[in-house]
Design brief:
Elements (H helix, E strand, L loop, with lengths): L9 E4 L5 H10 L2 H8 L5 H9 L6 E8 L2 E10 L7 E8 L8 H15 L4 E7 L3 H9 L3 E4 L3 E7 L5 H26 L4
Parallel strand pairs: 4-5
Antiparallel strand pairs: 1-2, 2-3, 3-4, 5-7, 6-7
Helix pairs in contact: 1-3, 4-6
Length: 191
């Protein structure tokens, strides 16, 4: 069993209508975290365009929410067509919540979603100096291949099972209930 998430955070999938929350999260990343997430320097406009695609078919984003605010995310994108069996995962966690187990839980959920969508090979690419990402990939037995300035971690996935499908459905139901509860709490919060 994992340790609780920091600040009673919750992990759940982002809804298609939450691309603005994803954009805002990516824009809040400190300079180094943003550089690691996008493997280089990117503009605010690039981030806005990228986040707008989070609701596209073939993209699943799991978010780490604290008091209803997105503070971390794991993005699963198929490579090529929506029928591809290969995908890439990318992670972003705001600095105060890094090194607290959030990335581990996000990757677990991402691997489960990938498996249940027929993805057999999941890649995670990072800069060669991104030790945190490499450590996270190793936790899940990813094979790492090193290039000049980058590292690619690859995890081979088994097919879905009734149990894996049920685990994802239960996590989704819990996430929806939690999101509704948080929204209601904000509406009825005393001023």
């Amino acid at each position: 069993m994992h340790e609780p998430l920091p600040d009673d955070g919750v992990i759940r999938k982002l809804w298609r209508t939450e691309t603005d929350a994803y954009r805002d999260h990516l824009l809040r990343l400190d300079r180094d975290s943003r550089h690691r997430r996008f493997a280089g320097t990117v503009s605010d406009e690039f981030i806005a365009r990228h986040a707008a695609t989070a609701g596209d078919i073939g993209v699943v984003v799991h978010g780490f929410f604290v008091n209803g605010v997105l503070r971390g995310a794991a993005e699963l994108r198929r490579n090529g067509s929506v029928m591809s069996h290969e995908a890439e995962a990318a992670f972003s966690i705001e600095q105060p919540w890094q090194s607290h187990g959030v990335g581990t839980v996000l990757l677990e959920r991402t691997l489960l979603s990938a498996r249940n969508r027929g993805i057999t090979s999941l890649q995670m690419q990072c800069l060669a100096n991104n030790q945190r990402m490499q450590q996270l990939a190793r936790k899940f037995a990813a094979g790492l291949s090193f290039d000049f300035d980058s590292v690619v971690g690859e995890v081979d996935l088994a097919g879905s099972t009734p149990l894996s499908l049920m685990r994802e459905a239960m996590a989704d139901n819990h996430g929806i209930a939690r999101a509704i509860f948080e929204a209601q709490s904000r509406l009825f919060k005393p001023v």
